[in-house]
Design goal:
Radius of gyration: 15 Å
Number of helices: 2
Strand content: over 45%
Structural class: alpha+beta
Largest sheet: 10 strands, mixed
Oligomer: single chain
Length: 157
Protein backbone atom coordinates (compact mmCIF):
# COMPACT_ATOMS: atom_id res chain seq x y z
CA UNK A 1 0.00 0.00 0.00
CA UNK A 2 1.32 3.40 -0.96
CA UNK A 3 1.36 6.11 1.74
CA UNK A 4 0.77 9.74 0.78
CA UNK A 5 0.73 12.96 2.78
CA UNK A 6 -1.01 16.16 1.68
CA UNK A 7 -1.66 19.46 3.41
CA UNK A 8 -4.46 21.97 3.00
CA UNK A 9 -2.82 25.33 3.64
CA UNK A 10 -5.43 27.96 4.41
CA UNK A 11 -4.72 31.69 4.23
CA UNK A 12 -7.12 34.64 4.06
CA UNK A 13 -10.11 32.60 2.85
CA UNK A 14 -8.12 30.78 0.19
CA UNK A 15 -6.37 27.44 0.02
CA UNK A 16 -3.12 26.62 -1.72
CA UNK A 17 -3.58 24.04 -4.47
CA UNK A 18 -1.43 22.65 -7.24
CA UNK A 19 -2.69 21.93 -10.75
CA UNK A 20 -0.88 18.84 -11.96
CA UNK A 21 -0.43 18.59 -15.72
CA UNK A 22 -1.28 14.89 -16.14
CA UNK A 23 -5.05 15.34 -15.69
CA UNK A 24 -5.26 19.09 -15.20
CA UNK A 25 -6.77 18.49 -11.75
CA UNK A 26 -6.06 20.55 -8.64
CA UNK A 27 -4.58 18.85 -5.55
CA UNK A 28 -3.32 19.84 -2.13
CA UNK A 29 0.50 19.96 -2.01
CA UNK A 30 2.01 16.67 -0.95
CA UNK A 31 3.12 13.33 -2.22
CA UNK A 32 4.55 9.91 -1.53
CA UNK A 33 6.19 9.17 1.79
CA UNK A 34 9.72 7.83 2.05
CA UNK A 35 9.90 4.39 3.69
CA UNK A 36 11.50 5.59 6.93
CA UNK A 37 9.61 8.88 7.36
CA UNK A 38 7.15 9.71 10.05
CA UNK A 39 3.85 10.99 8.67
CA UNK A 40 4.26 14.62 9.87
CA UNK A 41 7.85 14.76 8.56
CA UNK A 42 6.68 13.63 5.13
CA UNK A 43 3.94 16.27 5.03
CA UNK A 44 6.39 19.03 5.94
CA UNK A 45 9.01 17.81 3.44
CA UNK A 46 6.56 17.42 0.56
CA UNK A 47 5.00 20.84 1.12
CA UNK A 48 8.42 22.49 1.23
CA UNK A 49 9.68 20.67 -1.87
CA UNK A 50 6.60 21.59 -3.90
CA UNK A 51 5.87 25.09 -2.62
CA UNK A 52 8.90 26.55 -0.83
CA UNK A 53 6.75 27.06 2.28
CA UNK A 54 7.51 25.67 5.73
CA UNK A 55 4.20 24.82 7.39
CA UNK A 56 3.85 25.56 11.11
CA UNK A 57 1.94 23.28 13.46
CA UNK A 58 0.22 21.13 10.82
CA UNK A 59 -2.73 19.24 12.27
CA UNK A 60 -3.60 15.74 11.06
CA UNK A 61 -7.25 16.00 10.00
CA UNK A 62 -8.01 12.96 7.84
CA UNK A 63 -6.85 9.45 7.09
CA UNK A 64 -8.34 8.32 3.82
CA UNK A 65 -8.00 5.12 1.81
CA UNK A 66 -8.24 5.29 -1.98
CA UNK A 67 -8.90 2.00 -3.79
CA UNK A 68 -8.95 1.37 -7.54
CA UNK A 69 -11.01 -1.67 -8.50
CA UNK A 70 -11.44 -3.64 -11.70
CA UNK A 71 -14.66 -5.10 -10.29
CA UNK A 72 -13.00 -8.24 -8.95
CA UNK A 73 -9.94 -7.01 -7.07
CA UNK A 74 -8.15 -3.87 -6.01
CA UNK A 75 -5.49 -2.80 -8.49
CA UNK A 76 -4.22 0.14 -6.40
CA UNK A 77 -4.36 0.86 -2.69
CA UNK A 78 -3.29 4.20 -1.23
CA UNK A 79 -3.58 5.66 2.23
CA UNK A 80 -3.54 9.44 2.42
CA UNK A 81 -2.80 11.41 5.57
CA UNK A 82 -4.27 14.89 5.14
CA UNK A 83 -3.02 17.77 7.26
CA UNK A 84 -4.34 21.29 7.75
CA UNK A 85 -2.12 24.32 8.35
CA UNK A 86 -3.01 27.97 8.81
CA UNK A 87 0.51 29.26 9.42
CA UNK A 88 3.68 29.03 7.39
CA UNK A 89 7.02 30.68 6.72
CA UNK A 90 8.75 31.31 3.45
CA UNK A 91 7.90 32.58 0.02
CA UNK A 92 5.70 30.64 -2.35
CA UNK A 93 7.66 29.38 -5.35
CA UNK A 94 6.69 31.06 -8.61
CA UNK A 95 7.00 27.68 -10.35
CA UNK A 96 7.06 24.08 -9.21
CA UNK A 97 8.27 21.04 -11.12
CA UNK A 98 5.09 19.27 -10.00
CA UNK A 99 2.60 21.77 -11.44
CA UNK A 100 1.02 25.22 -11.21
CA UNK A 101 0.54 26.68 -7.71
CA UNK A 102 -2.34 29.02 -6.90
CA UNK A 103 -4.27 30.36 -3.94
CA UNK A 104 -7.85 29.29 -4.70
CA UNK A 105 -10.85 30.92 -2.98
CA UNK A 106 -12.84 28.31 -1.06
CA UNK A 107 -15.98 29.11 -3.13
CA UNK A 108 -14.19 27.87 -6.27
CA UNK A 109 -13.75 24.35 -4.84
CA UNK A 110 -17.07 23.39 -6.39
CA UNK A 111 -16.10 24.41 -9.92
CA UNK A 112 -12.41 23.64 -10.42
CA UNK A 113 -11.34 20.30 -11.95
CA UNK A 114 -10.46 18.04 -9.04
CA UNK A 115 -10.65 14.45 -7.89
CA UNK A 116 -14.15 14.13 -6.39
CA UNK A 117 -12.85 12.47 -3.20
CA UNK A 118 -10.38 15.32 -2.70
CA UNK A 119 -13.21 17.83 -3.16
CA UNK A 120 -15.39 16.06 -0.56
CA UNK A 121 -12.57 15.72 1.97
CA UNK A 122 -11.28 19.27 1.49
CA UNK A 123 -14.76 20.74 1.91
CA UNK A 124 -15.29 18.64 5.05
CA UNK A 125 -11.88 19.58 6.46
CA UNK A 126 -12.75 23.27 6.17
CA UNK A 127 -16.16 22.89 7.86
CA UNK A 128 -16.06 19.88 10.19
CA UNK A 129 -14.25 19.40 13.48
CA UNK A 130 -12.01 16.55 14.51
CA UNK A 131 -10.20 13.75 12.77
CA UNK A 132 -11.94 12.28 9.72
CA UNK A 133 -11.71 8.77 8.31
CA UNK A 134 -12.72 7.78 4.80
CA UNK A 135 -12.66 5.16 2.08
CA UNK A 136 -13.14 6.00 -1.60
CA UNK A 137 -13.39 3.37 -4.34
CA UNK A 138 -12.74 4.15 -8.02
CA UNK A 139 -12.92 2.22 -11.25
CA UNK A 140 -9.90 1.92 -13.53
CA UNK A 141 -10.80 5.22 -15.24
CA UNK A 142 -10.78 7.14 -11.92
CA UNK A 143 -14.57 7.39 -11.77
CA UNK A 144 -15.71 7.45 -8.15
CA UNK A 145 -17.80 4.36 -7.39
CA UNK A 146 -18.38 4.75 -3.65
CA UNK A 147 -17.45 7.03 -0.78
CA UNK A 148 -17.55 6.88 2.99
CA UNK A 149 -16.36 9.74 5.18
CA UNK A 150 -16.95 10.29 8.87
CA UNK A 151 -15.85 12.71 11.58
CA UNK A 152 -16.44 12.15 15.28
CA UNK A 153 -18.40 8.98 14.55
CA UNK A 154 -20.85 10.93 12.35
CA UNK A 155 -21.20 10.07 8.65
CA UNK A 156 -20.43 13.07 6.42
CA UNK A 157 -20.63 11.47 3.02
Amino acid sequence: MQRITNCIIEFEGRILLMKKPRRGWWYAPGGKMEHDELVPEAAEREVYEETGLTIKSPELRAIVTHLVSDGESYLEKRTMFLFHAKAFNGTLRSTSKEGELAWIPEAELETIPMDEADRVVTRALLHEQGLMFGTFVYDQHRNLLSKKLEAGGRRIS
